[in-house]
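request received
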Amino acid sequence: MSKLGNVVEAVEKYNQHVLDEVKRARTDEEFGQEMLDRWNDIKGRIKMGAAPTGLKLPRLALPEIDEPGEITRYLLGEGLPGEFPYTAGAYREMYLEPLRELEAGSYGRDGKNGKNGHAKNGSNGKNAAKVAVPKPIEVEEPTRLFSGLGLAEDTNKRFHFLTGHQRSARLSTAFDGPTLYGIDSDAEGVFGKIGEGGLAIDTYEDMIRLYDGFDMGSPAFSASMTISGPAPIIMAMYIAAAKKRFGAKVVPNLRGTIQADIFKEVQAQNETIFPTEASLRFLCDMIEWTSAEMPRWYPVSISGYHIGEAGSTPVQQAAYTVSNGFAYAEMLAARGIPVDQFAPRLSFFLDCGLDVEYIALSRVSRRIWAIGMRDVFGAGPKGQMFKLHTQTSGRSLVAAEFKNNLTRTAAELMLAYMNGTNSCHSNSADEPFTTPSEEWIRLAAHGQAILLDESGIFKHTMNMLSGSPGMKAVERAVEEGMLEEFRQIEAFGGVLPAIEHRYQRSQIQNAAHRYEEQIYNGTRPIIALTKYNDMKDEMPEVKMVRTPKAKKQLQVDRLAKFKKRNAAKAERALDKLTEVVESGKNCFPTLIETVEVCSLGQITGRLQEVVGHFRPMV
Amino acid sequence: MPAPIRVLTAVPICDGHDSAINTINLEFIRHGIEVVYLGYHRYATDMVRAAIQEDVKALGISSYNGGHVEFFSEVARLLKKQGADYIRVFGGGGGTITGKDDVIMRRNGVDKIFFAGTSLGDMVDFVHKNYGGSHKAFRGGKPTADMKLARKLTEIEDAYAGKKAPKKKRAAKSKAKLGKTRVFGFTGPGGAGKTTLIDELVLRLLHREPKARIAILSHDPSVVGAGALLGDRATMINSQNERVFMRSMATRGQAGGLSPATEDCLVLLAESGFDYVIIETVGTGQEAMPFQSGLVQKTVLVMNPDYGSRLQLQKIVMLDLADIVVVNKSDQERARTASSEISRRLDQNKKSQLLVSTVANRHRDPGVDELCDLLTEE
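response:
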C-alpha cells in the first residue's frame, strides 16, 4: 500500500472520530461541559469591529449553536480558521483589515507582522495580544499576477508597472515555450516562439536582468516562477543571479516559489524533458537543498491548475493534486528528510472555475491534506497547512463578447476568496486571444482589490461565507469524490504506477471531451457563445502583445556571446555535472555553479545524454 | 466503400497543449477519419516528413503557445519546397490566433484556421468536404523517394478498401529480392511496450549503423468503414529521423493484428532497399499468429510480466512461433517469476527460442542492447 491508502484510512478514521466525539459530547456530561466551556471561551474572545457605516460586526462569525454535540461537530469537523483541520482557512485572519484598536484578550491578531497578511497566531487565541496596536499593520497583498513577455528587461518593466503602487512586490513569472522545454533560443525551429506567452531565459544573466531593481533578499519581495521540466536549472540560475547581485549571504533570505511539479506535467501539461524518474530525482535534490538552505522558499507548487485547464472535473483536479502532494511527501520522507523540514515548504495551486464544486473545493483539499499530513506523516501544524495559490479559470473565458470575461472572473474570484486562498491570480478578460495587455491586466488586478478592499464582503468578518448548508452539501460530495479517486489510484499501487497506466491522463481526457460535448449540446450554456449569441460575432480586434523580430534576434545574439565567452569553461562544468549526476549524489549545489558558465539548453542537452529524454504519453 | 480520409495532427515545438487536439482527434475518429497523431512538442520538419510518409490528405496543427504565424508558414513552405503541397495544412489555436494572423497564414499556404468557438462538428464537416475524394497526383517537379513510396502504399491500402479485394501478391516471390534487407516482426498484447521497444531499437540501429535506413510499419485497430487513432508516432521520439520511413496503418476490420493490405505493403517495403523493415502488430490476443507470409525473418513476441496465471501461457500461440520472446517491464515485481515460467514454456518447444528481459522505458537499458545484438547478428 502506498501512503495514499493510509490517507484514505486516516480521513475515514478522522470522520468516524468526529462522529464518536459528537456522540460522547451528548452522552458524557463532563466532556459535553468541557466543549461548551471551550465554545464560550472562544466566543468570549472574539473581537468586535465595525463597518464604515458603523455597523458592529464580530471579527469571526460562528454558527449559532449551543448544544455540545453540534459544537463538537463544528470544532473538530470543520475547525476555526487557522486550526486543524483548517477547513475554513490555513490562517486565522486571512483578508481581514487590521483593527485600529485592540481589546485585551480578543480573538485578534497578536500584533506581530506575519507574512502574506497573516499574523503569527497563537493557538486558540490563547496568546492573543494584550497590547494595543495603534496603526494598521502593513501586510502583503494577496494579489500575485502572472506575467512574462518578450525578453527579461521587458518583463522586468512589467513587474515594476504591476507592483509600483503596492507595499510589497510579489512577482509571478511566466516563461516562453523554449524555456519551459529547457531549449535555448538558438535551437532549430524555435525562433518564432522566443518571448511568446512568457519571457525567454537562456542564461543566468537573463535572470539578473529579469529582477533588476528589486531587492531579492528583502522580506517585502518574493518571486514565483512557473516552470517545471527544467525547474532545478532555472532555480539554480535564480540563486546564482541573486548571489551575483547581493553576495552569498542573500541565499537564506530568498523568498518565493518555483512550480517544479513533475507529476502534473506528466498527467496533464506535457512540459517535461527528462524521464519521470530522473525528473523526480532532480526535483528531490533541489527540495533537499533549498529546504535546508533557503527556509523561506517554496521549492514545489503542487498544481491542479493545469489539470483543471486540461479538462478534468474539479473533483479530479483536487484529487490528483492532493494525491500528488502526498506522493511527493512520501518520496521526500523516504529520502530521510525530516517531515517538518520539507512539509512546511510544500505549497499548492488550484484552478477556480464556475462549476459548483468550487464553492468548497479548496476547503475540502485543505482538510484532507491536514489530516493526512498529521496522521499519516506525523507533520507538525506548519506542515499540515495547505498553503494555496488560486488562479481563476482560463478555460472558462471565451473570445465571443469577451468583456463578459470580467464577470466570469469576478464570480470565480468570489469563489476563490470564499475558499480562503492565500494568494490569487485573476485572469485578464483578453486572455482568450492574447498575452494580456496592460489595460485588461489592470482591470483584473482591480477586480481583486474591489472584492477585498472596497467591498465589505471579506474584510470585516472571518467565516462571512463559510458553512452554508449548500456549501456543506458540496463539501461532503467533493470529499467522497476525492477519496474515491484516491482509492482508484491506490488500486494501481499509488500515484506513480497510476501514471504509468495513464490513469490520470485518460480520466482527464475523457472529462475534457465530455466538457466540449456539453458546451455544444447545451448542457453547459456559454453566454454569447451558445446562448444569447445573437450579436454579430466578429473577431474582437484587441491590441496584440507580440515580441518583435528584432528582440528575438537580440536574445539569440546575447546567447551567442555568452556561449562564446564561456566556451572554455562550459565543457568542463558539464563534465563535472555529469560526474555528480552519475554518482547519485545531490547534484543541486553543482548545478548552481554550472549555470554560471552554461546555458539552459547546454545543461538540458547534457543531462538528457546522461538520463535520457522524456517519452510522451498520449 | 471509399477508403477513410487520413489526416495527420500535431502540436508545434515547445507547446504541450494537447487537450484541444485530443478532443478533436476523438471527434474525427468518431466520424470515420483515420488520424495519425504525431503528438505535441514537434518540429516542423518532423511534421512534414511524417505527413509525406503517411501520405495524409492534410496536416492539422493545434497551436496555443504563440509563434503560430512563423510555424504554420514554415510547415507550408517545407511542404511546397518538396513539391508535397498536395498535403494541405489547417489548424487552430483558440483565441491566440487573430484575424490578421489568419490572413497572413492563408496567404502563406494554410487552408483554414478554426477560431475559438468553432464547433467540433464544423471541423469534421470541413475535413470531409475538403479532404475527401481521391488523392491528388504529384504536380510537376520530381517527387521524392518518400513521396513515391508513400503513394504506392496508399494505392495498395485503398485497393483493399474497394469492393473487391485485389489478388494478394506472392510474398515468396519477393523473398528472393530481399537482398540484405532484414525484416523483423513485433507482436504481443496491448500495453506490453512494443512501441517503446521498437523505438529504442531504432535508436540503437541508427547509432550503430550510421548509414542504415529503417522502415517501420505500425498498426492500430479499426473496424470497417470507421476511423482510427494511429498514435504510435507520438511516443516514438527516436524514430522521427531522416533515415526512418514510418507508416501507420489501421487494421480496417481485420482480426489478428494486421490489416488486409499489410502483406502487400510489407512486400513493397521489403523491396525498397531498406536495411531494416520493422513491422508492429496491434495489441494481440492469445490466438493471434500474425506473421505467416514468411517474409518476416525474425519474430519477436513482447510480453508484459503481468499475464495472469501460468496456465495462460499454454494458450498463447505465438509462444510456439516467436524466435525471440521479450519480457518487457522486467523491473516489475512479477518479472522474475514471469521469466522463469516463460523459459520453461519455451523449453517444451525444443526450438531454441530466445528469451530476453528488457525495461524499454529505461535509458540505455542493457536488455534492449541485448535484443538489438540478437536481431542483428548474422
